[in-house]
Amino acid sequence: MITFSLPRGLTFRRANLRLPRWMWVCVLVSAFCLSRAQAQDQEDPLNKVHVAPPATATPSTEAPKGSEAPAVSGTGALKIRPGERIRMNVDMVLVPITITDPMNRLVTGLEQEDFQVFENSSQQKIATFASEDAPVSIGIVFDLSGSMTSKLIRARESILQFIKTANPQDEFFVIGFNDRPELIEDFTSSVEDIQARLATVRSGHRTALLDAIYYGLVKMKDARHERKALLVVSDGGDNRSRYTEGELRAQVRESDVEMYSIGIFDPYAATPEERTGPQLLNDLSEETGGRLFRVDDIADMGDIAEKISTELRNQYVIGYHPKDLNRDGKWRKVKVKINPPQGLPPLTVHARTGYYAPLQ
């Protein structure tokens, strides 16, 4: 048997009501629920709402001028004022380097003492040196203009070969371009996803090469890894872009991205754009520390792509703290020299030619 008290002010006089038994049961259950709800409202502190009176003054969220940075106290605790921004400045320049011999073969196994690095002709002290296979964020810029129709299958296969031989932790995006660039696949580490998307592309129209490279450099700002590279696969010069060559060169200098190119050039180029295209790709690639690989035989594209992948996985990375601490935003030339161990032939250094100093 369940016993309960009715809510205050609620009584029943069964004698004056002739109701079926089932209806009385419903009434009694409802009364029981109502009494429990009133009791909880009186006892549960969460049902009480407290409105604080308005403050007489609203404190500013901006730090006063000349104030010191917030102090650090406790384990991992950083005290900041509401609304403040945290800036972290790391004065370290990282320079990825590829070394080749006179036969254009990759040279590995060198040590830190074999290198010298100069900034604006001033030798810098090497702070870090690494040669391990670190993950890279890679953007693939794929020419889908009409002139690529007969080369499309081979080019697609070479891109897949490049991805399959990369570090499993690398991430990729793919941009296709003809009249304009278009993102075919966003950042992913899935070879299957890229393969499925590449199977759907078709070639046609003109060549917006400059726009596509510019788009790839901007897209690289979303990369997860510190090391970044672009692979451009194209067969000719630009004849459609909105961006100028000067604007693209400025963007290349501002971007910490290596650029490799696979050029499938026609030796009998008919237009000025096609004749200057190879030189443009070569200049952009070398300025960033990458290289242009010319395709003489379309059947060699897969081997070339695999060679580029191998280079990215076998680079040296030198880090140094620049002696010039001025944050003036100026271009600083960087030159890496190699002192090969005794018995080795003269070696060639492929490294970025400089960087812009930060402004603040």
At the fold tier of CATH, the topology name of the largest domain is Rossmann fold
What is the N-to-C order of secondary-structure elements (H for helix, E for strand)? Answer: HEEEEEHEEHHEHEHEHEEEE
C-alpha geometry: globular
- As a percent range, the share of helical residues equals 25-40%
Between the first and last Cα atoms, what is the distance in angstroms?
A: 79 Å
Mind telling me the CATH class of the largest domain? Alpha Beta
Q: Taking Cα atoms only, what radius of gyration do you get, to the nearest Å?
A: 34 Å
Q: So, the CATH homologous superfamily of the largest domain? A: von Willebrand factor, type A domain
Proportion in β-strands:
15-25%
CATH architecture of the largest domain: 3-Layer(aba) Sandwich
Low-confidence stretches: 1-17, 32-89
Biggest sheet strand order reads 7-6-5-8-9-10
User: What structural category do the secondary elements indicate?
Assistant: alpha/beta
Mean pLDDT: 81
The description of the largest β-sheet is: 6 strands, mixed
Number of distinct helices: 7
β-strand number:
14
Query: How many domain units?
Result: 3
Question: What is the structure about, briefly put?
Answer:
It contains seven helices and 14 strands.
Notable features of this structure?
single chain, 360 residues, Rossmann fold, four-stranded antiparallel sheet, 26% helix, disordered N terminus
Describe this structure in words.
With 360 residues, this protein is an alpha/beta fold. The chain has three domains: 1-42; 93-131 and 317-356; 136-312, 3-Layer(aba) Sandwich (Rossmann fold). It is built from seven helices and 14 strands. It has helices spanning 21-43, 152-164, 191-198, 209-219, 245-254, 272-288, 301-312, and strands at residues 93-100, 115-119, 122-124, 126-130, 136-143, 171-177, 181-188, 227-234, 258-263, 292-294, 316-320, 331-338, 348-351, 354-356. The strands form three sheets. It has a six-stranded mixed beta sheet, with helices on both faces. Strands 4-11-1-13 form a four-stranded antiparallel beta sheet. Strand 9, helix 6 (272-288) and strand 10 form a beta-alpha-beta unit. Helix 4 (209-219) runs parallel beside helix 5 (245-254). The termini are far apart. Residues 1-17 and 32-89 have low confidence and may be disordered.
